[in-house]
Specification:
Length: about 270
């Protein structure tokens, strides 16, 4: 119990001494600049694979529905309006979009390395190639995984099993959390430029996913019972809501990275 309280004490102190709120704010700004380029680059890549285009739209819908606390439909509509212009873009514009997308990846790695107190040791050419590969492969991987899951649910045995109400309702409720857990686990395991013990990434990923679900629940509760923000912002209410949600999301992710670092360093046991 003493170790647990030491952990919370050090976590709170490190959260501010490591400038976690500022790192989250920086990532929020970069995300707002890069979200449209990232989506457009992803759909541009998927356009070369006709079989994956429908899956790409499903991936976007799933992410917005389960990872954005509110206004998912409005955001999705605006993103689709931008993405619909992708086919008329020049190579210079596409290059600039890729630059902003890579900028987001670089800033994420830099912020997490700051929490871990490590430097990015890889040379610049290798770093660029690594980020570029991540940017190219990620949308294809997500789309393929979604296609595989869709195919599995069409198999006679599994489709009959899933349609059972006792199975279907818990599966629908739990699956977003499990996906968040897996995503955050691999995020905390792979992003830092140092060796991370997988079990600590697993624990940090679980805590991050729990905090993420609590934040989503809190947002929904606030918007349901306290609608004064609409009186203040009117038709523009979606914009500050989205900004706040992105910032809160990065706060949770950076906090998860800090938890992972503390678990691995075991510094809380030395106090």
């Amino acid at each position: 119990m003493k170790s647990f309280f030491n952990f919370l004490k050090i976590l709170g102190a490190r959260f501010f001494s490591d400038l976690c709120p500022m790192r989250a704010a920086s990532l929020t700004f970069t995300t707002l600049l890069s979200i449209v380029p990232v989506v457009m680059v992803a759909f541009y890549i998927l356009s070369f694979f006709p079989a994956l285009q429908d899956a790409g739209a499903k991936v976007e819908h799933y992410i917005l529905l389960n990872f954005v606390a509110s206004s998912a439909n409005v955001i999705s509509t605006q993103l689709q309006n931008f993405v619909s212009q992708a086919h008329v873009l020049s190579w210079a514009t596409i290059t600039s979009l890729i630059f902003f997308a890579l900028l987001l990846i670089f800033n994420i790695v830099d912020a997490i390395n700051g929490v871990w107190h490590v430097r990015f040791h890889r040379d610049s050419v290798f770093s660029f190639m690594l980020y570029f590969i991540i940017l190219m492969v990620a949308p294809i991987l997500f789309a393929v995984l979604l296609l595989i899951s869709s195919y599995l649910t069409t198999l006679p045995f599994l489709s009959h099993f899933i349609e059972i109400n006792v199975v279907r309702r818990p599966l629908i409720s739990v699956s977003p959390f499990l996906i968040e857990w897996i995503v955050f686990c691999f995020f905390h395991w792979m992003i830092p430029s140092c060796r991370v013990v997988f079990r600590y990434a697993l624990i940090a990923g679980f805590i991050t996913a729990v905090l993420f679900e609590i934040a989503k629940w809190g947002f929904v509760l606030y918007f349901h019972y306290f609608s004064t923000y609409r009186l203040v912002y009117g038709a523009l209410a979606t914009i500050p809501i989205f900004f706040v949600w992105i910032y809160l999301s990065w706060i949770i992710i950076v906090l998860g990275a800090l938890i992972c670092q503390l678990l691995q360093s075991k510094s809380y046991l030395k106090h």
